[in-house]
Write a structure and sequence with these properties.
478 residues, alpha/beta, FAD/NAD(P)-binding domain, Enolase-like, domain 1, 3 domains, five-stranded parallel β-sheet, 13 helices, 25% strand, globular, binds flavin-adenine dinucleotide, binds adenosine monophosphate
Length: 478
């Protein structure tokens, strides 16, 4: 007889591993199936996020920023640096060690919580049975009371830029360059394109980012996006808007990219080209035809507000379902589903999923932006506070950017917090905490903030909503 679990999770990314841990914590007999094999040839838990996403990209962003500072940012402080150099393989090695530490950490958490970790490929059959195919091709079937599909996503390929061994690459390979390319092309000015473009720009690459849309960072608040574009351009990232890549030709060690923009058909040649045009739900060989789980027209697993699929007792979370492809969105869905399976009334607040771009300066937001609220005819009051007027930011020479708080004009309830600047991600998270409790701008303005902190920019922006900012002239007088 095959083994029976209360919960079987397919995929051990942030959606799946968090769901598995929470389910086990709640006393459910839980197994998690993962097929990913790390650089050492062994199963690696943690999914895209830990292996080839959030964590490794942040490791390289931090290393490359330190190099950039050591080269160009320290003279101002009276610190002389000469002959600063970068050992790229050592930087990549450090990143790999961090990845290993974290993927191993998930394995330890599984042990500590009593989650059974199963190596292999999982496929949902009818009646909540799950077939596991091991590396050697042998298959077993396990029975599940409930199944959580957490198969994640893969990079999108586009026909004009088919991947090659090491010249036209996706985000995964771009985390492993062993030398800095002299000329780097990036297709797509989304979060991943901007973060990876920034890493290699800081290490000396000449970087051109092609973006088919005319608008930069179309999901961000327009004021923040404008400031970001200005800053990236100053940093030497050449962002070409309205530039659609139409073809590529690899010759020897280089690739020539054809693109069209307002000036017509053009070409540029690079040593490497990163294709970062987005990700798609990954559901290959995941669902037997009679398992009862529906996909939408884009291959995304169809779920309701609580992540239940069209098959009762089968749930799906993370990048494989609707919504933003973010690790924290995935893991919160994992927790919600595990708790619902355990009989709790869990729900998730999709209105307050923060977004972050880990460039320098960071860009982050939560809630709605000015243009969205305008389109919805919501009357708002807006407070903006520039980091140039924040003591801590000036002391650190991090004066680019601002915090923007948007509140409902009638109720003063905060509807959005947007930031570009030092610590933007952490600062917007403070806004998210406050918004979760239905805060008003006045509430944030009344709280005591430590001085000097960059967080004071949030307080001042909240005060500015009603014309009460102290350290900047108020647009609105009250
Ligand atoms: P995944 O993390 O993709 O995990 C799915 C797992 O399921 C994989 O390990 C896969 O091998 C396994 N799997 C799939 N099918 C099967 C099967 N049939 N059987 C067994 N195993 C299977 N998000 C952020 O929030 N912040 C960031 O800073 C950030 N940075 C990123 C940087 C990069 C370069 C990239 C590529 C992504 C980044 N993301 C970031 C996005 C984030 O990584 C994803 O949103 C997140 O990993 C999705 O989690 P998931 O659990 O849904 O899927
Ligand atoms: P994201 O989905 O946020 O990672 O962003 C990917 C970006 O790639 C989007 O803004 C797309 O407009 C852009 N994009 C997709 N295809 C092309 C292309 N052929 N040329 C240039 N940009 C593209």
């Amino acid at each position: 007889m095959s083994e029976k679990y209360d919960v079987v999770v397919i995929g051990a990314g942030p959606g799946g591993y968090v769901a598995a841990i929470r389910a086990a914590q709640l006393g459910l007999k839980t197994a998690c199936i993962e097929e990913y094999v790390g650089k050492d040839g062994k199963q690696a838990l943690g999914g895209t996020c830990l292996n080839v996403g959030c964590i490794p990209s942040k490791a390289l962003l931090d290393s490359s920023w330190k190099f950039h500072e050591a080269q160009d940012g320290l003279a101002l402080h009276g610190i002389e640096t000469k002959g600063v150099s970068i050992d790229v393989p050592a930087m990549i090695d450090r990143k790999d060690k961090i990845v290993k530490q974290f993927t191993g950490g998930v394995a330890s958490l599984f042990k500590a919580n009593g989650v059974t970790s199963i190596e292999g490929h999982g496929k949902l059959l009818a009646n909540k049975q799950v077939e596991v195919t091991a590396k050697d091709g042998t298959t077993t079937v396990i029975e599940a009371g409930n199944v959580i599909l957490a198969s994640g996503s893969r990079p999108i390929d586009i026909p004009p830029a088919p991947l090659t061994e090491n010249i036209i690459v996706d985000s995964t390979s771009a985390l492993d360059f062993q030398t800095t390319p002299q000329k780097l092309g990036v297709i797509g000015a989304g979060v991943i394109g901007l973060e990876l473009g920034s890493v290699w720009r800081r290490l000396g690459a000449e970087v051109v980012v092609f973006e088919a849309l005319d608008k930069f960072l179309s999901l961000a608040d327009e004021q923040v996006a404008k400031e970001a574009l200005k800053t990236f351009t100053k940093q030497g990232l050449q962002v070409r808007l309205g530039a659609r890549v139409t073809g590529t030709e690899v010759k020897g060690e280089q690739v020539t990219v054809s693109f069209t923009d307002a000036n017509g058909e053009q070409q540029l040649t690079f040593d490497k080209l990163i294709v970062a045009v987005g990700r798609r739900a990954y559901t290959e060989n995941l669902l037997a035809s009679d398992c009862g789980v529906d996909l939408d027209e884009r291959g995304v697993i169809f779920v309701d507000d609580y992540c239940e699929t069209s098959a009762p007792g089968v749930y799906a979370v993370g990048d494989a379902v609707r919504g933003p492809m973010l690790a924290h969105k995935s893991s919160e869905e994992g927790v919600m589903v595990a708790e619902r399976i355990a009989g709790q009334k869990a729900a998730m607040n999709y209105d307050l999923v923060p977004s972050v771009i880990y460039t320098h300066p960071e860009i982050a937001w939560v809630g709605k932006n000015e243009q969205q609220l305008k389109a919805e005819n919501v009357e708002v009051n807006i407070g903006v506070f520039p980091f140039a007027a924040n003591g801590r930011a000036v002391a650190a020479n991090e004066t680019t950017g601002m915090v923007k708080v948007i509140a409902d004009a009638k109720t003063d309830r905060v509807l959005g917090v947007h930031a570009i600047g030092p610590g933007a991600a952490e600062l917007v998270q403070q806004g998210a905490i406050a918004m979760e409790f239905g805060t008003s701008a006045e509430d944030i303005g009344m709280m005591v903030f430590s001085h000097p902190t960059v967080s004071e920019a949030l307080k001042e922006a909240a005060l500015a909503v009603n014309g009460h900012a102290i350290h900047v002239a108020n647009r609105k007088k009250r």
